[in-house]
Amino acid sequence: MQDTVRVNGIVLSAMPVGEADRRILLYTKELGRISCFVRGARKPTSPFVGKTRPFSFGRFDLYPGRDAMNLQAAEITEYFEPLASDPLLSAYGSCVLELTSRVGQENSDGTLLLTLVYYALLALMKQHMAPELTWTVFQAKVLEYEGLMPSFSACMKCGKPLKTGVFKPSYLGPLCLTCAPEGSEYPLSESTLYAFTFVRNEAPNRLFSFALSEAVFSEFRQVVRFLRGRMLSRSLSSEELLEVFQKQ
Ligand SMILES: [Zn+2]
């Protein structure tokens, strides 16, 4: 078909429509976020039954319909199957997908974010690092892609290189202990500063493979949560579900 568009991406969410159809939200390398209609996707005999579930990663052929794009064919290369069978990992994976649907733009190059999503889900699936750390590092990298992650190498007030410091919410970045002598609820140890610099410098394929002590992780996560709170106007429903699991 003349107008068919081939995209590489992942199914972020799927919603039933009518009796047997489905509307899916894709995040793609070529077009960023794109909504797509899948006729008959919920019929047991449909070739799209499994291919249009969240986490399905692969190639999708789309053609324009009257109101939306339609799915013509799909070839899935990774289902991230183990995520579906583990409720906790599935909850973390859903957080990754939901944040992607919130920050991903339509009609934009999705290469960076899609690559990050792929490696974050792979890390969750293969448990390369603690799931909570994977999720936090993913958010930190998204903040960087959105231009909301400051550099942690120098004090934002005096410009001196940082050994230790504090994160100052009013500066949206780190200050040295001379510039912020009164202390802060966001301390930054040397290891935490290093973790931020590591996440900033590394590509997604090398990002999800380290460990942090509990104290360093706590500092790291506190700052990521603060910055993310500024990026999103409302909380993620997947994260609320995750908190329920974590309390069990
Ligand atoms: Zn300073």
Summarize the structure.
With 248 residues, this protein is an alpha+beta fold. It has eight helices and eight strands, in the order E-E-E-E-E-H-H-H-H-E-E-E-H-H-H-H.
Structural class: alpha+beta
Amount of helix: 25-40%
- The percentage of residues in β strands lies in 15-25%
Q: How large is the count of helical segments? A: 8
Ranges with pLDDT <50 over ≥5 residues?
Answer: none
* Ligands, ions, cofactors: zinc ion
Q: What is the CATH superfamily classification of the largest domain?
A: Recombination protein O, C-terminal domain
Largest sheet: 5 strands, mixed, barrel
Shape: elongated
Mean of residue pLDDT? Answer: 94
* CATH topology description of the largest domain: de novo design (two linked rop proteins)
CATH-level-2 architecture of the largest domain: Up-down Bundle
Distance between the first and last residues' Cα: 51 Å
- CATH class annotation of the largest domain: Mainly Alpha
Please list the strands of the largest sheet in the order they lie side by side: 1-2-3-5-4
